Amino acid sequence: MKTRQMVVSLSVVLMLGALLTANFQKQPAPAAAMAEAANAFSTTLTDAQRDLASFSFDDAERLNWHYIPRERKGLPIRDLEGDALKTGLALLRSGLSEVGYDQALNVMSLEELLYLLEGGTRKERRSKRDPKKYYISIFGKPGNKGSWAWRIEGHHLSLNYTIVDGELVSTTPEFFGANPGFVDAGPGREIRVLGAEEDIARQILKQCTPDQVKKCWLSKDAPDDIRSRGTTQPDTSAAVGLAVKDMSADQKKLMSDLLTEYLQNMPADVASERRKQINEGGKNNIHFAWWGESERNARHAYRVQGPTFLIEYNNTQNSANHVHAIWRNIDGDFNLPAK
Fold first, then answer.
1. Using one digit for the tens of pLDDT, what is the confidence trace for 161-189?
2. Which residues pair with 184 in a beta bridge?
3. Residue 144 to residue 12: CA distance in whole angstroms
4. Quick one: which of 12, 52, 67, 68 could link to 75 by a disulfide (CB 3.0–4.6 Å)?
5. Within this chain, do residues 31 and 140 fall inside the same structural domain, yes or no?
6. Is residue 112 part of a domain?
């Protein structure tokens, strides 16, 4: 499995520096760690900042998620410094594994590259492309009683968590994106955030027999984006494509690797629970489908769907150098029942 490459922009260096003294020892259960981190964050804020970050649990904003570069409600990381920045990033860290935390920082840091690559005036670019333009929102009162939730969101990143009576009941929708998906920084300095998610899936396709191709490769035309963008619930249409039960041993191993690539973003307890649900639903019941072309830098998309989860991946924009990838819960995101 390919190791993820780290991207660090000048602006994100400030974020990393704020966490040099953070405690990365074994953490309590995710829900308790999140409540502790959220309350620690709140104590470092001014009254005005706390007002921006705080919402009631039933506020409609809790379900108002998206990954496009739009205006958002919440408290932006760019307004934080000192202890507030440190505790804000510790809150983000509480919702991810170390691998997932690195991935989130990588996604955020790519905004610096977009700032450099896109035209327009400096003011126009900075107002839209800023590696600190990610918003923290807390819904309800963090603790071990009642319901509360939190989110961190900005361009190409949307992480959503719901806690009820001290139990983490939802971690979806979970979205990571990358633009550019591939950066050639010179010999030995290739950067591909979300590269492994593409490469492993392509290997499954490449190993398909002619009969498997008929089931797996649904169209040479790729959809322009993932489905159910910004919706409270995923598309729960029947799974399509090649079933794992009809894959070769090598393809089954690749599918396991692909699932791990997605699962490893979450804290160990969350990843373990997701894997347990996958096993109970039956790995043989997972389907893999591909759209578009088979090579890099050409429009393509894929879907991995099992009885309990849905992965959608799309790389079609900017000459197939712009990745969208999402994990959703078939039973319902945000701890809401599926429609």
1. 999 999 999 999 999 999 999 998 888 88
2. 190
3. 33
4. 52
5. yes
6. yes
